[in-house]
Design goal:
4 strands; Alpha-Beta Plaits; flat; alpha+beta
Length: 100
């Protein structure tokens, strides 16, 4: 089943974060994911959304997402994100409508 990642990031060091961004697609593309949204100023409908960037990713499954996240290519660049930002990240399973 399709899986989604929602990441709320607060970037504290844009120069170091750029090293993460520069390598992201090369590490991401082999896993068949889709980068659905990146927004610096999402419209808040309810509540508070305290972050400087919001990212929405789609993967074919939770297993594929985990394979990407633990891959050597991603682990090589994620250290830059860790050094340059804080994040709240969740993995969501897609929803299948019940048959009518």
């Amino acid at each position: 089943m399709t899986a989604y990642v929602v990441a709320k990031l607060t970037i504290t060091d844009p120069n170091t974060y750029a090293s993460y961004g520069n390598g992201f697609m090369a590490a991401f593309a082999p896993f068949g994911g889709k980068l659905l949204a990146v927004d610096e100023a999402p419209e808040v409908i309810e509540g508070e959304w305290r972050c400087t960037r919001t990212v929405l990713l789609e993967f074919p499954s939770k297993a594929v997402m985990r394979a990407w996240y633990t891959s050597p290519a991603y682990q090589d660049i994620v250290r830059h994100r860790f050094a340059a930002s804080t994040a709240d990240i969740v993995l969501l399973e897609g929803f299948a409508l019940p048959a009518a």
